[in-house]
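HUMAN: Ready with one sample?

ASSISTANT:
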Amino acid sequence: MNIVLSHSTQTPLARRFLAAVLITALGATGASAEDKAPVDTTPLAIEAVAAFPDLQWSGWQPDRDGVPQSLRPVLLTHAGDGSGRLFVAEQQGIVHAFRHGDAETKVFLDLREKVHYRDSESESGFLGLAFHPRFGENGELFVHYTTTEAPQTMVLSRIRVSKDNPDRADSESEEEILRVEHPYWNHKGGTICFGPDGMLYISQGDGGKGNDPHGNSQNLQTLLGKILRIDVDHRDDTKAYTIPADNPLVELMAANDSKPPRPPVRQEIWAYGLRNVWQMSFDRRTGQLWIADVGQDLWEEINLGKKGGNYGWNLREGDQPYSPTNTSTAPGFIDPLWQYSHDIGKSITGGCVYRGQQLPELDGHYLYADYVSGRLWGLKYDDSRRQVVANRPIPHEAEGLPVMAFGEDEAGEVYFTILTPTGKGIYSFRRQAGQASR
C-alpha cells in the first residue's frame, strides 16, 4: 500500500507520524504576521565577477568538429584537507581540480564512460560530489550520477584517491553504495553533502515528468522526493551502508514495534514532500541545512531542513494548495522560509550561507540564484525572530546567464558557476568600487 500521509485512509501509525510532523511544523512557524518587520530588498553593495577568467579546462574545447561545446560546471566544492584545491565537476562526468594561480586544471576524476548525460536530458548526468570529512586521512569521496547502464537510475558510489597521485582519484576503486530508479529523465535532485553529524545527506527528486504523477513525494515506501540520511562508515549484511538509529522513521518504527501493522517504509528517509531539490547545503557555523526546491507552476522555494519534515509536494506548491492534486490546506506541512513567484524566476539554484572573511557584510546571508532569469540574491534570516529580514539583489556581469551551482572553498568564500560557451564559468563576489568594508 502507499503511505500518503495527507489522505483520509491513513493508518493509525501514519496518523501518529503526521502528528509528530505537525509538532515539528508548528515549532517552525515563527513570528506572527503583526510581529514581522518589512523585508529589506535594497541591492547589496556587492557584485559578482569572473573568479578565474584565464583558467584553462583540461580536455575541454569550446568547439569540437565545428560544433560549439558549452562548459557545464554543475558543482564546486573543496576537500577539506588543507590543500587549498577547488574541485569543479562537469555534468558529463569529469571532475577538475586546481589551486588559485594555476593556469590549467587537472583532471581529478573521469567517469564519462559511466555517466549518462544528454543535452536533451539536461537534468541527468554527474550531479553530486562530497568529500569524506576525514578525506585527508582515508582518501574517500562520494559521487552521485545517472548511469549509462540504466539511464534513468541514480547511482551513489564511494571512490578513493590514487595511492600514487593525490591529484587523481582512482576510478577503478569505485564501490556502489546505493541505486535508486527513476521513472523519467528529469527531477533527479542529486546533491550529496556530509552533515556536521558525519552522516551523508542525499537528495532524490520526485521521479520526474510533471505534477509528481506517481505520488512519490508523499509516499514513504519510495526514496523519490526525499532527503535521505545514511552512515557510509558502516555497513550491514545487505547494504553497503547503515541507517542511523536516530533517523525519524527508525525511531517511529521502534516506538510502534509492538503495534502492527508495520508498513514497509524506507528508513533512509530524513525529510520528504520535496519536488526537485537543487541544491542543499549546511551552514558551516550553525549546522543548519538549507534546501532549495524547484517549483512546478508558480513558486520557487527555500526551506530550512527539519528532521522528519514534510514540505508538502505534491499536495501543495510553496505554501499554497496545488490544485491538480489538492484543493484544501492539510495540516502538518512545513512552510517555506522564502518563496518567489514565476514572474521573478522559474528555477531556483540553491546556494550557501556566507561564512568567509573577505566580505563581513555578507556574513549570514544565504546566497542563491534563479537558473532561468540568472538573478542573484542574498537572503538574511533572523533565527531569534524566526523570520527573513532581508532578500537583497546582487548585480553581476553574467546576469541573464544560467546559474548552475554554488559552492564554498575551504576558507568559506562562496563561488557560483554558470553554463558558459567561453570557459569563464566560475564567479566570486567582491565589494563594489568605492564601498568601504563593514
